[in-house]
Write a structure and sequence with these properties.
The chain is of the alpha/beta class. It has two domains: 150 residues, no CATH class; 162 residues, P-loop containing nucleotide triphosphate hydrolases (Rossmann fold, 3-Layer(aba) Sandwich). The protein is 58% helix and 10% strand. The protein has 15 helices and seven strands. Strand 1 and strand 2 form a beta hairpin. Helix 4 crosses helix 5 and helix 11 packs parallel to helix 12. It is globular, with a radius of gyration of 25 Å.
Length: 368
């Protein structure tokens, strides 16, 4: 769920920092509302981890998270309207400055800042957009009141240029004996990964693991990645921690370094993608992309096209994400939704951690 607020926060940050956009917001009387949206969403992000943890047991918090998701979608829609309108304004200004429009060009040069704001404010769609922004700010007030009512605990995030600090990178290594209650999930995924599929049109099949933050998506992917059947089935296995933002160069380098075993002293995406093609050509591979956040097809497309018709049939891309929209964007043929482990498995895991597996404690499962 933090994915949605993070994405909207980033878009609001871009809107707030732009000087011309500041003039427009001030002229339209929505400066305060947009600043409020950014500030309140930041406070909501700080309690998101606590809310997601509690949502499995507390229905009212689950509904609260659904309200936030719906709210973020509505904010995105309004921001899209704003961007489309400003783009139209800029296109019309470009046409005004075309050859033959000398008087208009001189007028734009002399009065450009004021003219742009006035022209923008007079567009017929603007009153509707400004009303929607003010309504969103009012809706967010109620969401904030509910946040305080539910006593959600904040987790501090730091921001660099509007983005959250980088997360601790994951690896494929895990102690399978320490994992509890994921055998059925792992078996289901392994069956899908090794299944013959000749209808993928030469492109590796994408399979996604989707679930809330902290529920065990990465752990499940690690369990599957290290399975003996998976290890023997694929010629090449690659693990890449993606996280946010989706850094194409970093991801491409990680794939190259994993497949070649040496550092990739390259900085051009085109060159890196060609290297990936060479190393994975005529191999049946499993590529794990852990913790994918981006919904932008344009960022994923170069990798998808690079791997098209390169590898042997049966190659797979396994994705973990909090967002089903990410799974859809990546054209997943199968989505595995991760749920909470059972109470009995949870107790066995807790007792193993707390009591180091002492046999007199294990097995004495209380009524939960």
């Amino acid at each position: 769920m933090d994915f949605f607020t993070s994405k909207v926060m980033e878009e609001l940050y871009d809107l707030v920092k732009d000087k011309f956009q500041q003039e427009l917001r001030a002229a339209l009387g929505v400066e305060k509302e947009i600043q409020n949206l950014s500030s309140k969403l930041n406070k909501i992000r700080q309690v998101m981890d606590d809310a997601e943890r509690r949502s499995f047991k507390e229905k009212h918090i689950k509904l609260w998270l659904q309200d936030i998701q719906a709210f973020c979608y509505d904010v995105e829609d309004v921001l899209d309207e704003w961007r489309i309108t400003t783009h139209r304004q800029q296109m019309e200004e470009s046409e005004d400055g075309a050859p033959g429009g000398i008087r208009r060009k001189i007028s734009n040069f002399l009065y450009h800042p004021i003219k742009r704001v006035v022209d923008f404010a007079q567009r017929p769609e603007i009153p509707d957009i400004t009303n929607k922004i003010k309504e969103l700010d009012s809706r967010l007030d109620q969401i904030m009141k509910d946040k305080d009512l539910y006593n959600l605990v904040p987790v501090t995030y730091t921001h660099i240029s509007g983005q959250e600090s980088k997360r601790v990178p994951t690896t494929s290594f895990v102690d399978a004996s320490e994992i509890q209650g994921r055998d059925i999930d792992a078996s289901a995924l392994i069956r899908v990964l090794v299944r013959n599929n000749n209808n993928n049109n030469g492109s590796p099949v994408v399979i996604s693991i989707v679930g809330a933050g902290g529920i065990g998506k990465t752990t499940l992917a690690q369990l599957v990645y290290g399975d003996e059947q998976i290890e023997s089935h694929f010629d090449e296995r690659v693990w890449v921690c993606v996280s946010h933002p989706f850094d194409q160069i970093k991801i491409a380098k990680a794939i190259v370094e994993s497949t070649t075993g040496s550092s990739a002293n390259l900085s051009e995406l085109e060159v890196l993608l060609k290297k990936i093609q060479n190393t994975l050509s005529q191999k049946r591979f499993l590529l794990v992309l852990d913790d994918v956040w981006t919904e932008e097809d344009a960022k994923w497309a170069p990798f998808k096209n690079c791997l098209l018709n390169v590898a042997l049939p049966g190659s797979r891309i396994l994705v973990t994400s909090r967002s089903e929209r990410v799974a859809k964007m990546m054209a997943s043929v199968y989505v595995h939704r991760v749920k909470l482990i059972s109470d009995s498995d949870a107790w066995l895991l807790l007792s193993r951690i707390a009591f180091s597996g002492r046999t007199e404690v294990l097995g004495k499962i209380p009524h939960l």
